[in-house]
């Protein structure tokens, strides 16, 4: 009892301290007023006072401590940090993380205070979920959208869904559909919690048998749709055997899961057979996309056309599926419909499919700038913004100290600083970032300037004195090398991935050791710019020689040559179809981006092969 009273007193003391700190911080908020730089059309939507470099680095260190304190359940340190900090990516991050911890603990008094201080546009989804759960906000649309989600959700949103299901605030059919997807994802605890809230608990999943309750039926279905069972040759027969004990929706979900498993294995005929038996209402975007990819892989154009036109509207309108819809119309001889969609798709940016659509109309990539890089005067004005200055200070310090945690925070601060910039100001910011060697944020800013195009900023080509000679030595196209580097590292010197891939060309240490032996290099040269580019270009050349094809070599560079080979068809396959049907999401996106980048670089470098269609070509048979 004494311990309980002391805990209550401590909670009240901390809450009082936090509320006092919050009140003080409200009195010292920095006024942010729109200003015009009077330098062209570049306008800062707001300016933050600059801080000294020492203050910025100290703030970053305090930020790291405050993040740890939030995870440890300490409310005082994050409150103190926020009381001293201006608005920034760091303060938004701390406030969101703290709010989620407060919500998890049910400390709604402090939650309410801090939630009011967080800009609406900066509130994470999980933060919003806790706000609804705690009665701070009422958001039936959020609950409805969460109930239709089929993937993983953060803890706070899963809790909100359980609360909403228990009070019958969600559609029961949507709720049970989500239970099915959670079971298929092996999210057993979340599935059990939601099923319980929906009023029908899940029995023992390993020993489930036919039953009348919803929970019993879902458990029986799980015997087919679990990750370890849905790829088995016996899965279809088993689903048919238990169908008499299942609802139409459950059976339709089961066929969709079996179709998805076959599609990922590139067994396209089986995938189409199973998807045809699926219930469209049970299918999520992933299923629809692989339904379409299975038809595309077999080049069944009428089938593909029917599938795309049956997709949910938002998915159907994505640039990928608009391009393939146009292709299906063209293959079916309906050229007017095809041309209309190609024309619309060609106007949707500079992505892989917009570029292919433009070429389908007889045009090609343009690298004609519509705006010059910004003058030094405009760059200097942009640099006076405290948030920009904070980002650049963190970037330069991170680069000097090889501190990748700080480098990632510098990127977050840049995104925060430029979030409301107009196109002219984005070009100015991109120019400033490029001149400071902050290439990833220069590309980021230039890419966001939709109506002001500067291709040297979008597709920079630094380090040519190393990259071009090494590419030429091993007989590969420098444009392809630059297209790959832009995708791999955004020209971040010393970049390191979570799995250890290193440098501009993201070479794995084990691969580097093998290359070093072959070339007579020291494997530690991987960590130098020159050595990294030499190793990366040699490996690109090696993979290309294995396949005699850039598309396959690009897939092999990312996922390994063995996988790239397994993804080939038994007959020659159009390169764009090969790319779209790669089963790895990361590699599929990677190949398309690298090849589109390469096309732009080829045009910038004045090379002869300047169309993406030509570069994609035909992938040879396995």
UniProtKB/TrEMBL annotation:
Any one Gene Ontology cellular component term annotated for this protein: periplasmic space
Family matches, as InterPro entries: Lysozyme-like_dom_sf, Lytic_TGlycoase_superhlx_L_sf, Lytic_TGlycosylase_superhlx_L, Lytic_TGlycosylase_superhlx_U, Transglycosylase_SLT_dom_1
Keyword Zinc listed: no
Superkingdom of the organism of origin: Bacteria
Keywords: Signal
The Lytic transglycosylase superhelical linker domain, residue ranges: 404-444
Pfam families: SLT (PF01464), SLT_L (PF14718)
Entry keyword annotation includes Signal: yes
Segments forming domain Transglycosylase SLT: 471-571
GO molecular function, one term: hydrolase activity, hydrolyzing O-glycosyl compounds
CDD domains assigned to the protein according to its UniProt record, in alphabetical order: Slt70-like
PANTHER family for this protein: SOLUBLE LYTIC MUREIN TRANSGLYCOSYLASE (PTHR37423:SF5), SOLUBLE LYTIC MUREIN TRANSGLYCOSYLASE-RELATED (PTHR37423)
Protein family according to the UniProt entry: Belongs to the transglycosylase Slt family.
Protein name as annotated: Lytic murein transglycosylase
Provenance organism: Snodgrassella alvi
